[in-house]
Write a structure and sequence with these properties.
The chain is mainly alpha-helical. Helices cover about 80% and strands about 0% of the residues. The chain contains 15 helices and no strands. Helix 3 crosses helix 15 and helix 10 packs antiparallel against helix 11.
Length: about 300
């Protein structure tokens, strides 16, 4: 009994020592994650403002911000634009990222050393630099139209005529490298003996891809989709620098709409309420992806 008691106390002391090492991480998470979220939730139920009478009369107003927000047609237009931007970016980044990783899998080192950094360049750049590069590329007198005219094709007003397509293409260029790295790592873990066995049994390359490789990396596909969803929902600088949310409200996503309401109109209470909707959409997508992955297991 005495020996058991001594062992138990030693185990408790050991667990306490391990817990102490977690304290800095817990403090940082509480200070920079938990508290800001709780404050955002609270401010979304207040009339917090930077100017006007509300700035001097700060108080709790219940669901008024949410009622105002959901009766505003611009809010529903922003949700539609956000979902369109999200789906277009996810499909483009995932498909192109996978194709690049798959096609580079068996190329020589020199080819991989050249193509890899070219794609990574778009990812490591800040959003504002990506926006300026893409603005110059898709401008009416930019590189894209120069290439089209060289092929005797008419120029296109990318930014003003097709603003949503333009920002989706810019975001795809910006985020494809992240998907490529994830898929490169996952494809490297697929045993080549499985692919060779499938080919010996007469499977074509497409059958091997869809029936062997993709099922083997489905966890990576799910995780990559979830991470890309969260990062795409937060894209602000790229859209703001390229189109400013326009023309009209054609590219006014939820972050842009939140910026207008919170910082341009100085209604921080309404801005934080929109931020809560953005947080809800991200949380909902994460739960859906997690449930799909669990069901597949």
């Amino acid at each position: 009994m005495a020996a058991d008691s001594i062992d138990r106390k030693a185990k408790i002391r050991y667990d306490l020592k391990k817990s102490v090492l977690l304290i800095p991480a817990i403090v940082l998470m509480v200070a920079f994650f938990i508290i800001p979220i709780l404050l955002t939730v609270y401010y979304s139920f207040t009339n917090l403002a930077l100017t006007g009478s509300n700035a001097k009369n700060f108080h709790f107003i219940g669901f008024e911000n949410y009622t105002t927000m959901f009766t505003d047609p611009r809010m529903w237009a922003s949700i539609r634009v956000t979902l369109l931007f999200l789906v277009g970016s996810l499909v483009g980044q995932s498909v192109i990222g996978f194709l690049v990783a798959y096609l580079m899998q068996r190329k020589n080192q020199a080819f991989r050393s050249f193509v890899g950094p070219c794609i990574l360049a778009g990812w490591v750049m800040p959003e504002i630099v990506v926006a300026l590069c893409c603005f110059a590329f898709f401008d009416t007198s930019g590189t894209m139209n120069t290439l089209l005219r060289a092929l005797h094709l008419p120029g296109v007003k990318w930014i003003y005529g097709h603003p949503m397509l333009t920002i989706i293409l810019a975001n795809i260029w910006h985020g494809t490298a992240f998907s490529m790295l994830n898929y490169q790592s996952a494809l490297g873990n697929v045993s080549s003996s499985i692919e060779e066995a499938a080919r010996v049994d007469g499977a074509t390359r497409l059958q091997t891809l869809f029936r062997i490789i993709l099922p083997c990396i489905k966890d990576t596909i799910g995780t990559n989709t979830m991470l890309n969803t969260l990062s795409t929902l937060g894209v602000f600088g790229l859209i703001w620098a390229m189109t400013g949310g326009g023309p009209g409200n054609a590219t006014t996503t939820l972050p842009i709409y939140m910026y207008y309401q919170g910082l341009k109109n100085f209604q921080l209470g309404q801005g934080t309420a929109i931020g809560m909707v953005l947080l809800f959409v991200g949380t909902l997508c994460s739960i859906v992806y997690t449930m799909i992955l669990k069901n597949e297991d």
